[in-house]
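Suppose a colleague, Dr. K., hands you the sequence of a protein chain of 174 amino acids and asks what its three-dimensional shape might be. Before reaching for any lab equipment, you can write down a predicted structure in token form. Begin with the sequence itself:
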Amino acid sequence: MTSSARRRIAVMTAVGCLIGLSPLAACAQDRANEPMRVAQAKQKMTKKAAKEKVHKVAIQVAENNPQLMNLALNNAANLIGYYKKRGEKAVVEIVAFGPGLHMLREDTSPVKARVQTMSLENPELTFAACANTQANMTKQETKDVPIMSEAKVTPSGVVRLTELQGQGYAYIRP
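The predicted structure, expressed as tokens, is then:
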């Protein structure tokens, strides 16, 4: 508050008291406290917004490597657990494409049991399987390539990662 505004409030208060206009004096006092009330309201809103903050993370799996797949799952579990302890929410999507699609294949996944368990335990964790890769694998293997029920099929894994980044997701490549 500027010094001229303070002077005006002081004058209004004095005049109001002198001529018996107590409502005018009360109004002047309310205006003097108004910046403090506004600041307190903003502070409460900021605290509430911090509690509601959602951390969004996209994790890429593009290699047929069980260690890398487990690392991606560890990263997801660590992120979700860390923010849960802080009272915040983390939304994680693991996107598998190329040779990494084996992570989400019903028939060849080396981490199938872990994906199933983590999917049940963490509703904020989702899995996306690349349809382009699935079609190419189906063609090469001359048989259907089944995807685990825990994963949703997305038209393109790379496009999905791009879309997630456009939505504010952090991009992790273990």
